[in-house]
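Reopening this ticket.

The earlier resolution said the output was attached, but the attachment link was broken on my side. Pasting everything inline this time so it's all in one place.
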Amino acid sequence: MQTWQMQAAKAHISEVVKRAQSQGPQEITLHGRPVAVVISRETYDRLSGAGDSLVEFMRRSPLHGQDDIEFERDRSDTREVEF
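Inline output:
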């Protein structure tokens, strides 16, 4: 991952973005400390699961379509809570 100082990243934002797309994440530092990472939209979508609904996510489960799954309910006493 390439590291950019904040001032250099601001001055060369188009290059930072192009490199994020072609070479991977680009780290930005402020006063020597990492503060941000620029990633491509493709990477963001993959990491965030953007576009997938809960139903689509569950349909990809290895358990999808199995009708013989039983979930047992915990029958233990509930705990007392004071308000």
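Reporter confirms the inline version is readable. The radius of gyration is 23 Å. The mean pLDDT is 90.
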